[in-house]
Fold this sequence. Notes:
Strand content: 15-25%
CATH architecture of the largest domain: 3-Layer(aba) Sandwich
Number of strands: 14
Shape: globular
CATH class of the largest domain: Alpha Beta
Distance between the termini: 23 Å
Amino acid sequence: MRVLYGVFGYGRGHATRAMGVLSALAQEHQVMVCAGGDAFEALRSLHPVRRIPTLRFHYDRAGKYSALRTIMGNARPLLDLLSEGDDARQLIDDIRAFGPDLAICDADPWTHRAAAHLRIPRIGFDHFGVLAHCRPPIASGDRLAYAADVLCYRWLTGTPDRVIVSSFYDAPATRPGVRRIGPLIRDEVRAASPTRGQHLLVYFNNGAHQLTPAVESALQACGLPVVVYGSGQIGRHRNLSFRAPANQAFVDDLASCRAVLSTAGNQLVGETMHLNKPILVVPEASVEQRINAAAVVRLGIGAALTWKSLTAAAIRRFLSGEWRYREATRRHARDGRADALEAVDEFARQLTGRSVRASREIRGAA
């Protein structure tokens, strides 16, 4: 079978989720991977990847999320997407030439729309679908923004034939054809042997703007060695070690850290739970990340702060609850990879009449 796999490019979480199923699919089938931004960089060493545009948050000079800059920064790719401009038409032509039997789209609007244009059966497979296709707890103050985000998501991606939602917390599906599974744990994380080191692992998905002088000062005064990914810097400054993006090196630092501080992405939260690491999340200015942050607190696996309240004292308070958080991660950790492969196979058979994997892969994924 020929499979189109589209991966959204903002942050590395979408790529790490895709890694959990791409390795199994590529063993048996021809897979065309399309990804942009951070996902392209994360996947290109593991599989041939066709680069596509991506959408991003944009920030002002003080590191604060800017709605105006976000709209302006995404205007050109959005116009191309919605009007089927040069980039969108070329992608459609390339996908048509590949001739996929099935499309799996991780929140990426370009492959969603191209597959719909070519009438390729589609499986939506991401985390944002927990908002659009499930019923997560929503804070009363977020209900309007939640409705707007879901409307925008559905406008950009359309309605897939089937949906798989990967989430570290529970939320019931709103309709048939939707399957919710746990986080997808990639091979490197599954193979890791966690130890309790002394460093704090920090990951920012837009660190060039998120690592403000105030945040850097808080990290310098937190009392621990700090390993930082996603800042765009490399080198050492006082107790901060800045690392370049790297799959295996990041997993090694994650497995050996004392705790994690990051933006509130679903995928990294799931990996920290798998490795029994407490996590302190600082959500971006999005409803999805605020819901993720609330779930971290609700499950007791970590704590949440706003960017303004991220201080050295707040980090130390979080670390004082380390063992309580560790106990909660043991109770709630899940590996959704086997469930994901089961769901992809079931939906592929429903949509195409063909299986996407052999029985030995089912056994090996468990």
